[in-house]
Design a protein that fits this description.
About 50% of the residues lie in helices and about 15% in strands. It is of the alpha/beta class. Helix 1 packs across helix 2. About 35% of the residues are buried. The structure holds magnesium ion. Magnesium ion binds next to loops. The site of magnesium ion (MG) has 7 residues, from loops.
Length: about 200
């Protein structure tokens, strides 16, 4: 078995949990749709996907939501409502810190947007301690598109079984496994910790 040389973390539902319902409620309170309709819009509209692939800007995303919901707040208020939906998963933050103490390079590999990243960088110190960040809106592609996996390989200088990758979504994990990456499907922090110990990376922990 190859002991991996770098560890690649998905962000949402791996290192931080989130609830778009929090944003939907705050946006609904300032517009003419109810919570569920705002949530439905965010789920079904192409705007979040376009925003997270870098096809539209933050301002254009704001305008799309404003048009659909009649949100009457400012661009800045919208940004804070949309971004303040995350909280840390403590045992996974500890896993990352443990890897760093062992000198193991780590990367963030996320389908996300600039509002979320700015908010997380400002509020969660762990986020600053990675070797690199592959973010969908910067790459112009979302997991499981091969383009974003290639970007990670290029940035890290690693390929196939030298990469260990954690993600909570099966289609993203499958795309990594198809490239020969070692993978951990995050079902719970406990299972991910057990799998991390089996990888051989933290054999002395
Ligand atoms: Mg995720």
């Amino acid at each position: 078995m190859t002991i991996p040389e770098v560890v690649v973390f998905d962000l949402g539902k791996v290192l931080v949990d989130f609830d778009y319902g929090i944003a939907a409620r705050k946006i609904a309170a300032r517009g003419d749709l109810d919570d569920d309709d705002v949530k439905g819009f965010l789920d079904r509209s192409p705007a979040p996907y376009h925003y997270e692939t870098g096809l539209i800007t933050r301002r254009e995303f704001f305008e799309a939501v404003r048009k659909a919901t009649s949100f009457d707040g400012s661009f800045e208020e919208f940004g804070s409502f949309f971004a303040d939906i995350f909280w840390e998963i403590p045992s996974m933050i500890e896993m990352h810190a443990t890897l760093r103490r062992h000198g193991i390079p780590t990367y963030i590999f996320s389908n996300t947007n600039d509002l979320a990243v700015e908010h997380i960088r400002r509020n969660f110190p762990f986020f600053s301690n990675f070797d690199g960040y592959i973010l969908s809106y910067e790459v112009g592609a979302m997991k499981p598109d091969a383009k974003i996996y290639e970007a990670l390989e290029k940035m890290s200088g690693k390929r196939s079984a030298n990469i260990l990758y954690l993600d909570d979504r099966t289609e993203n994990i499958a795309a990594g496994a198809a490239r020969g990456w070692q993978v951990i499907l995050q079902e719970s922090p406990e299972k991910s910790w057990a799998a991390m110990k089996e990888s051989g990376l933290l054999s002395r922990v």
